[in-house]
Amino acid sequence: MFCVWFFAEDYSVCPISTQVTQIKFDIMEIDMGQLEQGKPKTVSFQYKNIGEHPLLIQHVETSCGCTQPEWTKQPIKPGDSAEIKVSYDAKYSGRFFKTITVFCNTLNGMNELKIKGEVKLSVNNK
């Protein structure tokens, strides 16, 4: 059985089954454009199970606590689609570039998604 251990974290990511499948994202990077400071924004990464076995998103990790993912914990049947929602907390002004790592039962075991944009300083915070 395939298992990945993360020393920086206190958990392991192990597939429930040894059956691997294939995932296809519609887009791997989203430019969120200009965001108003203090107003979170959510975007969605659409994906499809293009393999022959159920797809299980086991874990989604972000490069910053300001980025929160949301995904279905249920297996995705072959041919079915789903989405990973990512919310960015636009607390601080300036440009941002964040990585979202998706761990799943595919051959390489993970996919990297990216969001970027710029938070404009709020008039109230000048």
TrEMBL record:
Any Pfam family matching the protein: DUF1573
Entries under InterPro entries matching the protein: DUF1573, Ig-like_fold
Name of the molecule in the record: DUF1573 domain-containing protein
